[in-house]
Design brief:
The chain is an alpha+beta fold. It has 2 domains: about 120 residues, Periplasmic binding protein-like II (D-Maltodextrin-Binding Protein, domain 2, 3-Layer(aba) Sandwich), CATH 3.40.190; about 90 residues, D-Maltodextrin-Binding Protein, domain 2. The chain is about 40% helix and about 15% strand. The protein has 9 helices and 9 strands. The model has no long low-confidence stretch (mean pLDDT about 95).
Length: about 240
Amino acid sequence: FSWDVTFADVQTLNEMVLQGELDVAKVSCGVLAQMDERYQVLSCGGAMGYGCGPLLLSSNGSSFDLSSVTNLPGRNTTAALLFKYWFMNTQQGGLKVDYALFDAVYRDLKSRRIIQGVVIHEHRFTWKRDGLYLIQDLGAFWEASVHSPVPLGCAVAKRSLGTSVITHVEQEIRDSLALARGRSEPVTPFIREKAQIGDKAVIEAHIQMFVNDFSQNIGVEGAQALQTLLEVAKDS
């Protein structure tokens, strides 16, 4: 087989998979509970770990404003699910949220157009220098509450591809990870082209945080984390 690649933000990928438009995709773990049986989770290619969760930030202080809207990076993202999990366990009152692309959430926080929002990806490394305030590390809250790594993203494939093809896809992902880790220069022009922030140090920090042993194989611990997230999603 050959690859016909689509690049898109994670919320768009989530929506495409919900419509059955992609054979193989990287999606939010938060969308798994809404997916049907057409797809299965692959054992590699995901993003999960410790100390890598989304951040709830404010543009004007470190306290959560219950009366204000919280902007989330996509309705079906893990970030949205982790925020709602935190809210249900720590706050009393009505939930007020709005949704936007992840880069728009950060841009609006930085420009003070919005009061609070959840940020992901490279923006996890730039909020301090941009004068924003941390309300809650949602990943840290998850880890303390359920004692498991934070399952952020995962690779999925259509079951109709068949076991042989799916196994081959998983091997290609692992081979790709091994090749990338062996590079003397991890930040390639391709990575820089796709990055939201061109700062080399930020890109390298992003890679080091999110590409780890769980990316190579989610293992038993990762599978248990996914199951816990699915149970949380059903209660949300």
